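Researcher: Go.
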Amino acid sequence: MRKYISCLVLISVVFAMLLAVKVKGCFKHQYSTIVNITAKSAIVMDLRRNKILYEKDANLRLAPASTTKIMTAVIVLEHGGLDRVLTVSRKASNIEPSKLGLKRNIQYKTEDLLAAVVMSSSNDAAIVLAEGIAGTEEEFVVLMNIKAKALGMENTRFANSTGLPSKKEEQYSSAYDLVRLMSHALTKEKIVELLNAKEMFIAGSDNIKLRLRNHNKMLWRKPESIIGKTGYTIKAKHCFLGVVYRKKGGIVFAILSARTPWKDLSILVNHGLHLYNGGLRLE
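Model: Structure:
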């Protein structure tokens, strides 16, 4: 009798283990390839419901590179007029790439400089805007950090308007904080317009035309455009902050510190849209 009961217990335990493995496998197998993204940190959020669909170390503090410029654009729109004319300073003209090559003392409309920042990730244009709006880039950064706090970006500290590595103080953000920022930025029609723009020409007081080309390669690669802001430095590696719209909402997402950004984005967005459309949430 004892042997019979022992056998029943053993069979029950084995059956329970097999069932657990099967359930676990069914739950995760369909989305297991998403684990293969090279990004150290990533997140996908339902834009309308403000619900996290997928995350990978989303609160990890990492260098945001030029995704910082989305905050720069937000501050410009909330603190300055697009028709203002700003002058290129020595500091702006001497900043390191990426840049348009703006020449000292040449004047540009704020609207054109904003386009250069969002589309072409121009560091010189970001400096001109920061100085024009707040007097100095340092004072502009104060506005950036005040806004970050207001948006609940608890793992973020900005040190400049460009996203370049800072020698004075550490600059960091998280994937979660960045999608909070992007959700707010998408309420600004001008930012959405520029994220969608592929190419544009601007000119300053010297009447020299400068070509802007969007750094987001996904605008050309996808039949349904992934719009967003790219970022790269040696320290930060590749970063991206973006959105895919649907009729009643869409997904907003971020990747930080990626080695293969475009492949990561394809994987992340495909799975993110599946989850958005009712698939199981990946834990």
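Model: The longest helix spans residues 2-29.
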